[in-house]
Every structure is written in C-alpha cells, then in structure tokens.
Design a protein that fits this description.
The protein has one domain. Helices cover 67% and strands 3% of the residues. It contains 10 helices and 2 strands.
Length: 289
C-alpha cells in the first residue's frame, strides 16, 4: 500500500499556505508573534480546502463527541505535564539546572508559587488546596489553548493526513507524518525557536525526531476511538506543559543539551509504551507518491 496522492496534495497545500505567515515571521525576525499562532491554523485550513475539493464532509473521519473517549482526554492532557515534571526533576538531579529563586515559598505550612497563574490564585495556601488548584488551572488552560490554537494543527495533521496515511496504525504513515510535521517547523526553529543554542541540529534532526514520537503517540491515542479531541488535548498539553520549565528553572546556567536529551528520551519511552499498548495490529506500508 502506498501513501496516497490526497495526502501529498494536503502536504503541498499546507507548505504553500504556510509561506504567508512564515514570510511575516521572518520579516519581523521573531517567531514568538501572533503570526506563529496563525501558522498553527494552516494545516486545518488545508484540510478544509481538501475536503471541499474532494467533496468530503468536514466532520468525516473523526468522532466529535468527547464523551466517547473521556479517559484518554484526561490522559492526553496530563501525560505531557508528567513528562515535563520528570524532565525537570532529572535535569536538577544531574545538576543541569537550578530552580528560580523564590519560585516556591513555604511558610507556616502554606505554599505560594511565583510566576504561575491559577484559577484560585497562587498565593499562600495549604498543599491540599494548591495541588487541585494547579491541576484544575492547567486543565482549563489545556482546554482553552486546544480550542483556540492546537485544534488548527490537529484538524489537519491527525484529522485529515492521518485519515489518509495511518488510519489503521500504519507505522510508515505515522513516521512520514511526523517527519513532514517536524520539518514544517524548520523556518521558525532556524530563527532560534525551541533550540536557540543549536537551531540547525534542532530543526533538521531533533524536531523531526520528536514529531515522529508525537505523531505515533497522538495518532495511536486518536485512533483508539477516532475522537479528534484526544489529539487536540495531547498537542495542547504538550505546548502548555513546556512553559512549566520556563517558570521553574533559571534560564542562566541551564544545560540545554542535557535537558533536551532527557525530555526526548522520556517522550521516546512514552511513545514506546503507547505503541506497545495499541489495540490494532500495525501494518507497515510502502512509501511512495
């Protein structure tokens, strides 16, 4: 079985449309702008165009009722946070980073966090209030970010391209989606996004490798019951949890190669576990035009 032409058409449209936001990102010399957020909606727009051209329903290929896979909606939201926290702990354990001074203060059995926005505030509170407050705030953030931004990418990559190339857990399809998805980030990464100390290595090798892990993890989780929101919240949780390190760790003195290696390793292990737990048998397909 070959990767079909409809999938390649989607990839071409996505690359062409992405030139518009990337132009303004490059001209402004900053990847942390509203153009980057707009870029996240390009795969979704490409999927809409493909569905219109081929006269497909806009909702076909996915289940839209989140209650159909409620357990994995929560798992997809919190797995990235667990990986981020484990990455922070291991980086600190290997003396690759230091905590921000004053990030956490404990006085009279009350804990306060600095630089963290929470629904019921981040001021002094007992741990049994702080923990659910933090987790609830994080989950609400994941939901909002998912609806506003991550949905744009996932409606395209998982909602359309995966439907064409890896709807039955075809390994080569997951890998190709991940490689293309990773290289799609290349212009922003070469500008210093994600890997400011080694943008070329990050853009050519590390990001595509990670996106292969994400493609397999998000894809298998989504394919369980085809609920699109599982992939959306996985993606949203990934992006939001990455900000935890920025709040907890000092920028100065951070050993980025070590931290990136630990984070990549943890995602590789997570992907292997999800892959091993898949319900459907993997079918390897031949890559072709």
């Amino acid at each position: 079985m070959r990767l079909n032409k409809k999938g390649w058409q989607f990839v071409c449209i996505t690359c062409i449309l992405s030139l518009i936001p990337y132009y303004f990102i490059v001209v402004n010399g900053d990847s942390n702008t509203s153009w980057t957020l707009l870029l996240m909606w390009v795969p979704g727009l490409s999927a809409i165009i493909m569905r219109m051209v081929h006269k497909e329903g806009f909702l076909s290929g996915s289940v839209w009722n989140p209650l159909k896979d409620l357990k994995w909606l929560f798992m997809a939201s919190f797995i990235p946070l667990a990986i981020e926290i484990a990455s922070i702990v291991l980086t600190l354990g290997f003396d690759g980073a230091q905590l921000r001074p004053g990030f956490m203060t404990i006085e009279n059995d009350l804990i306060a966090l600095k630089g963290v926005a929470m629904i019921f505030g981040a001021g002094p509170q007992p741990w049994y209030v702080l923990l659910p407050n933090y987790l609830m705030s994080y989950f609400v953030g994941v939901l909002l970010y998912g609806l506003l931004f991550a949905f744009g990418e996932e409606y395209g990559w998982r909602g359309y391209l995966q439907k064409e190339w890896a709807n039955n857990h075809q390994l080569a399809g997951f890998v190709m989606i991940g490689v293309i998805w990773g290289l799609w980030h290349l212009p922003a990464i070469l500008m210093g996004h994600n890997y400011p100390e080694y943008p070329f290595l990050g853009g050519i090798i590390l990001m595509p490798l990670l996106c292969v892990f994400f493609s397999i993890s998000f894809g298998i989780a989504k394919n369980r019951k085809h609920v699109i929101w599982v992939a959306v919240l996985f993606h949203s949780g990934l992006n939001l949890s990455a900000e935890v390190s920025n709040s907890v760790l000092m920028e100065e003195g951070l050993n980025r190669p070590l931290n990136d290696a630990i984070w990549t390793f943890l995602w590789a292990v997570t992907t292997a576990i999800i892959f091993s737990k898949r319900k459907d048998r993997i079918r390897v397909i031949k890559i072709g035009s």
